[in-house]
Amino acid sequence: MIxxxxxxxxxxxxxxxxxDCLLGYSRKGRLNMKNxxxxxxxxxxxxxxxxxxxxxxxxxxxxxxALFGLGYLGLSAWxxxxxxxxxxxMFIASAAYxxxxxxxxxxxxxxxxxxxxxxxxxxxxxxVLALQKKTIxxxxxxxxxxxxxxxxxxxxxxxxxxPLPAWACVFNTLVVMVLLLPTKxxxxxxxxxxxxxxxxxxLA
Length: 204
Fold this sequence. Notes:
Blueprint: H1 2-24, E1 25-26, E2 29-30, H2 39-45, H3 52-78, H4 84-117, H5 122-134, H6 137-158, H7 173-180, H8 188-201
Helix pairs in contact: 1-3, 1-8, 3-4, 4-5, 4-6, 7-8
């Protein structure tokens, strides 16, 4: 069962990465977030972004988060045989990650769609950026939950609380993210999550 859960984690993160790209890329390529500070540049940047992209991202991302959620919950259940305390912390952290991050993904997609739907005018920009600032809290809450999860997992592996070898701690979102941060790869968080589950699927 654990391998099926980890497989769901891999597929979910890959699909979520694809949904993120639907928000971060137009038909002309990757969006430059620096343009958000200039109404004209922002409008021009989104000119080739189809309205269906953010809507598709909302649907795909919501499904993907539910799918990779099985990986986090499965890993939390698996570790209970070796550390009850780590299991409880990871279960709580999983919920603290999955629920807010789903809300954040839906809100972010809705904000981008709303900007496109309102014609990319200056007033639309001001409205959606204001909405984004007021609804950013779920993102921070979600990533705080994820941080607690991966740190707990890292500590459990390094301390020998699980049957995994200590070096398996490298298959951890936090470790992989440190390696990916200097790169220009899109969806770094989802790549890191997929790598974590991919490594563990051969070891757990």
